[in-house]
Amino acid sequence: MTKRLFDIDPWLIRTHTLAKDDIRLQESLTAIGNGYMGLRGNFEEGYSGDSLRGTYYGGIWFPDKTRVGWWKNGYPEYFGKAINGPDFISMPLTINNVAIDLAKTPFHDFDLRLDMHNGVLHREFVVDLPESVQVKLSFDRFMSNAVKQAAVIKMTATVLSGQADIRVTSRLDSNVHNEDSNYEEMFWQELGQHADSNGASTLSVTTKPNPFGVPQFSLTLGMQNVLKSPAPETRTAEESSLLVQEDLAWHLATGESSTLTKYVTVVSSRDVPTEKQVSAINDLLKEVMDQGYDALLAAQNRIWAERWQMADVLIDGDDAAQQGIRYNVFQLFMTYYGDDARLNIGPKGFTGEKYGGATYWDTEAYIVPMYLSVTPPRVVRQLLEYRYNQLAGAYHNAQQLDLKGALFPMVTFDGIESHNEWEITFEEIHRNGAIAHAIAQYTDYTGDHSYVDDHGMTVLVGISRFWADRVFFSKRKGMYMIHGVTGPNEYENNVNNNWYTNTMATWTLRYTLKMLPEATAERLAELAVTDEEKAHWQDIIDRMYYPHDDELGIFVQNDTFLDKDIRSASTIPANQRPINQHWSWDRILRSPFIKQADVLQGIYFLNDEYTQEQKERNFDFYEPLTVHESSLSASIHAILAAELGKEEKAVDLYQRTARLDLDNYNNDTDDGLHITSMSGSWLAIVQGFAGMRQHADKLSFKPFLPKQWTKYQFAVNYRDRIIQITVTAAGTELRLLKGAALTVWLYDQPVALAAAD
After folding, report:
1. Which site among 262, 305, 343, 715 is 20 to 30 Å from 428 CA-CA?
2. pTM of the complete model
3. pLDDT tens digits, residue range 34-64?
4. 333-381, pLDDT tens digit by residue?
5. If we measure between CA atoms, which residue out of 361, 330, 329 comes closest to residue 345?
């Protein structure tokens, strides 16, 4: 764990220190977005020191050529990447002909804070200039949740001493590149531009052509700058390659202050045809300027207040834990809140470009269980529809591997697999199980069967047909097996009979057979599942092979796992952790160490199917081998530790998942946040500490209070009801805040909750 860059505060991410040695980490931690677009915490005036300047737009990507040493049939043709997009915050600033650059310019009274109440990023400092001139500068910006295509930046300058000639060059700049790319080229080409010193300036760009048939995307950005009191002494507009800018200059004397507000709007070809984008931009700019900064901020405050009312988790007695859980919920909601079924939740969100920025299995495995409780049901429904809408791509992926049915991609933007590592693309097929499980979770939790009876059944049958073709029948053992896979533990590749993969394959077949009779007549006719198919699926269920060790009483991770040098991760010297940054990949693959929950992931998913003894034996065996070098790991272990009464272990693992990025546990947050693992802190509290389980129309809780906490409180949205759970040393209180009367279970005893007033 590195030093903390930000103060502990329940609602703020705040520091009074510019972390010049960790500027990229600081930029990651102050990233903001609104589900439509977002950017890292870069400085408007620019910064000449080390920095990762990044602005990202939902659904805008480029197919990067796949480069491998030896091509194998079935490899994806391209690696999909979320590309760095046009920079709209750029506002280079000079005062008395001195370029303001915090890497070089003397300054003091630095204050940087991200307000989690509303998503406003504030920064202020005082610059010390020649001839004893001091000017206080402050910047506020937010991505609007009321007008998703809009962002607002407000710069205020106050002269504390001396005279100041101020010049700001406000830009829309598409001269940007990616760091995480095989190309050292730019991805953008200019379509048109218009610079206007009296009105809206616009810049239209398109992604460069690609040879893969992936559509090119176009963006148009508009800006209008408003300077009041005083009016600018000079104001000029200029166009150059991939850039429009407006230059404003004015003078302030001691004690005088001025505010420059920059309104920005963005539309893409995903929503507006290229030829209509400039007109749409002008209309949007007029809309946001008519509202003005204060009205837009008031709308922002209202929207976030509504979200927090449903999703906030209150912790008394541990401000670090409080800050951690709020920060994670906050970043998740800035990434996705169900506004567009064509979008999903990338592992870096709008905070960086690593991992390609696309959709992973993380969404179904880790986000869906949380979002079911803290957002309206439509939000998760949108995530399910996203997969249904990409079903054609899943069939294509299976065909590439010479298989029937549907294989959903490990990494994608459009449903087509776009990851270029063989052990992921070919072998990490367990992702299909998580996608099927998410359908079951939505159906069981909400009680809404309309999805599984129609679109969801199409997905389930496609996945089931894939599993039925992917299994191998061993005549020698008379059992079905699955060879050549990578399980959730990516520190083992190309193994046979990964317990988790085999388990989720048969669970999917079981669930599909169970739900088939409920499907609509139209859907059943379209799918045409034969009796022969169903009998084959049942045979696979009945005769699947699962590695097991009777002496240890555990499910074995794969056929040869116990042949390794089994030893605790505590035997790894501290100076060799994390091992993925110190060991060769070959050494990691030969080791017994586990990256993240694998067997335990299956026990977590199918929790009601295993006894307490089975859970305990497997936890006690596998957790000591786990190095938790996946951001997805700690939460699953925390939940199971809590269920098994290992409270201290559960709390330790919660702290890791809650503050993974804030404390940079894995020394890898500088290139972006771990967005899709952020749900883990909520899951660790609600499913872990509070013991929430939902199965077969029964909602239950078994809470405990961490020793250093005096209270925690949260609410869940369950079947049109809002239930508030408060846990203190005195006991647990359940209140129905909204909806019809309901019986829930507390420590295995029924509790009747009266209807809310």
Report:
1. 343
2. 0.96
3. 999 999 999 999 999 999 999 999 999 999 8
4. 999 999 999 999 999 999 998 877 689 999 999 999 999 999 999 999 9
5. 361
- Rg, Å, the chain Cα set: 27
CB-count exposure of residue 644 (10 Å: 0-12, 13-18, 19+): middle
User: Distance of CA 412 to CAs 351, 465, 652, Å?
Assistant: 18, 21, 34
CB environment 610-636: b (16+ within 10 A), e (fewer): eeeeebbbbbebbbebbbbbbbbbbbb
CA 594, distance to chain mean position in Å, is 23
Ramachandran class of 94: left when φ > 0, alpha when ψ lies in -120 to 50, beta otherwise: beta
User: What is each CA distance from 344 to 273, 308, 363, 375, 442, in whole angstroms?
Assistant: 22, 21, 8, 15, 16
Contact, 556 vs 621, CB < 8 A?
no
Bridge-based pairing of strands 188-194 and 201-207 is antiparallel
203-209: average pLDDT: 97
Query: Which candidate in 490, 492, 629, 643 is catalytic?
Result: 490
Buried b / exposed e along 381-391 (16+ C-beta atoms within 10 A): bbbbbbbbebb
Cα–Cα nearest to 247, from 195, 170, 193: 170
Q: Which of 108, 114, 94 is CA-nearest to residue 46?
A: 94
Report yes or no: 288 and 296 within 8 Å, Cβ to Cβ.
yes
Percent of the chain past pLDDT 90, that is, above it, reads 92
Name residue 182's amino acid.
N
Residue with the two structure tokens 């089931």: 464
55-57: strand order across its sheet: 32-33, 37-39, 55-57
Q: Is 490 a catalytic residue?
A: yes
Structure token pair of residue 153 = 């930046």
